[in-house]
Hints:
CATH topology of the largest domain in chain B: MetI-like fold
Mean pLDDT of chain A: 90
CATH superfamily of the largest domain in chain B: MetI-like
Helix content of chain B: 55-70%
Low-confidence stretches of chain B: none
CATH topology of chain A: Rossmann fold
Number of helices of chain B: 18
Shape of chain A: globular
Structural class of chain A: alpha/beta
Radius of gyration of chain B: 31 Å
Order of helices and strands of chain A: HEEEHEEHEHHHHEHEHEEHH
Order of helices and strands of chain B: HEHHHHEHHEHHHHHHHHHHH
Bound molecules: adenosine-5'-triphosphate, magnesium ion
Strand order of the largest sheet of chain A: 6-7-8-3-9-10
Oligomer: heterodimer
Number of domains of chain B: 2
CATH superfamily of chain A: P-loop containing nucleotide triphosphate hydrolases
Largest interface: A-B, 26 and 22 residues
Largest sheet of chain B: 3 strands, antiparallel
Amino acid sequence: MTVAELxxxxxxxxxxxxxxELHNTHIYxxxxxxxxxxxxxxxxxxxxxxxxxxxxxxSTVLRAINRMNDLIPGSRLEGRILFHGKNIYxxxxxxxxxxxxxxxxxxxxxxxxxxxxxxxxxxxxxxxWRGTKAxxxxxxxxxxxxxxxxxxxxxxxxxxxxxxxxxxxxxLCIARALAVQPEVILMxxxxxxxxxxxxxxxxxxxxxxxxxxxxxxxxxxxxxxxRVSDYTAFFLMDADRAGxxxxxxxxxxxxxxxxxxxxxxxxxGRFG
Amino acid sequence: xxxxxxxxxxxxxxxxxxxxxxxxxxxxxxxxKIWQALFFSSLVIGLxxxxxxxxxxxxxxxxxxxxxxxxxxxxxxxxxxxxxxxxELIEILRANISAGLFRRFDRDEPFSERSKESVLxxxxxxxxxxxxxxxxxxxxxxxxxxxxxxxxxxxxPRARLEFHSWLNRDFLTRPMSSVPILAGVGxxxxxxxxxxxxTMILAVPIGxxxxxxxxxxxxxxxxxxxxxxxxxxxxxxxxxIYGILGLAVFVRALEPLTSGxxxxxxxxxxxxxxxxxxxxxxxxxxxxxxxAREAIRAVPQSIRQASYGLGATKWQTVWHHVLPxxxxxxxxxxxxxxxxxMGETAPLIVVGASTFVVFFxxxxxxxxxxxxxxxxxxxxxxGSQFRNIAAAAIIVLLVTLLLLNATxxxxxxxxxxxx
Lengths: 272, 419
Ligand SMILES: Nc1ncnc2c1ncn2[C@@H]1O[C@H](COP(=O)(O)OP(=O)(O)OP(=O)(O)O)[C@@H](O)[C@H]1O
Ligand SMILES: [Mg+2]
């Protein structure tokens, strides 16, 4: 059974509480173990933040969730990552399909050097979308509205997406991800290249998107994590530099009364 | 370490202060000026070299020629020959050449079937017999007119002096001839175009596709690394080696194919346009692959990630993003390879370009000549007029290359994208 078939059944029942589950996941780059034994369950339609010092494997875990790590030669994963109860690393699962359902927004805004319109339509088109011009227009508008950028670009849909400001580009990238109707959106430090105002806009947008999507965000900004996320996962490197999950729980609890001393040190800035 | 350093203390060593600062800056600026002068003089030397080259070529391509005719055209008819009818021209021809020669022309091709132009040409060759007895360079023609006139009057009393551009419409369209003033590069241009066409038809797609495979699909294993090293080295192999390879493989081993014998062509050997094109394709293929890879590698990784992240397959990513974004670079490289193939001489001599082809090629199984071969041939002929037409042919080649490069720049700018 493919993920597609499974999820159809699953959606019909609408009973899964978790969008993504990691079970005893180890991730390697060649012989180097970058992530060691991570198990965590990401709740549906919530925002989960990954925090932790640089190099502790947050991005690695995030990329493992939509199999973007496959693109890095030598990368390897042990353990299971379940999506709708199906291990996405099973041999019968096509990473292409995983990536359609689990979208990604990158640290540096990376719109295609094409028009805004084509940026949005690229995803649907390559995934076999068929429809009239009017339907395409609607799809584009929906995606851009969904990413709270419609009003700013509605008059220049056919101008290059690369001509927008950094913050607008990032929202365009979010809109582009929305256009293929994913269930989960992974964001790797989406605001680190943006000014405070753009950052605020993206944060508001995430809270908006949370109604329909599951969001996982990597951030170095503690305020951001506490402002937007429902759950927080704290990662740390162990002695042989492999990243580990130290603590995972509701954001409020992690930020106010963490169980682990290391979490408390990190959050209060005494560490990392 | 940190225990021995005292915060408020100045570090030892000397940083210029006061008047020394100005002296130091002046010295630095002077050093910069010296380098700048050096850069500038290199530029001047380059420009001088280029100027000299152009000067010698142009000097040889235009200038006075002393023309002598057996008979003055005005004695043949009171009207300009070009205005006469074909019948009148035939009469003039009959009256001025021997009966035997006239019959022979008629046997070769009956006059009734000949065009007016061909009769006119016979009259020009056989009756008027225009002959260039001396040619002069452009500089002398412009500066020393009197001396030239005196020389010509003394040595060729019957000759007329006229200003001649060796580069002219006839030169571009006429085929090779043993008489310099009648010779042209028409069939050499056509030959070059044929050879380039075959080269590009083969080398461009294979080069691009090979480049895409190596860059996007091939894994980092020892055999692909071996292939890569080989391709990089092949690009540096002297072109004559490719000529020898082409001779052995295309001209000899594959003769039935390259001569067209397998396709029903009978009067040919392996030294054809096809062999030349195949050899040239081999020669530019490594360049094409290397260039395509460079262009593909220059496409930012973030674009690929964005595409994969939306659920694109590898092929979709390559087709929609990698290739379009690499296109300007690939085009530039293609045209540079084309210029290279256009100017190559050595391998084609080995493959067997004919230096004396008077007909125009009309299939890939024809014998051929190309512009550089024609230039090479003419520069090695005795007689100053061959120098003149060689110079004119060099201008043709240079202008063609210039046009190709200009196209490359235009195309690159047209397709250029910003990330
Ligand atoms: N492509 C790669 N090849 C080899 N090793 C890698 C690669 N990407 C990451 N690593 C290693 O894996 C470890 C985790 O890296 P990762 O990028 O996941 O950290 P991170 O937590 O996202 O850090 P940051 O907060 O700085 O982005 C690091 O030690 C890093 O050197
Ligand atoms: Mg990271």
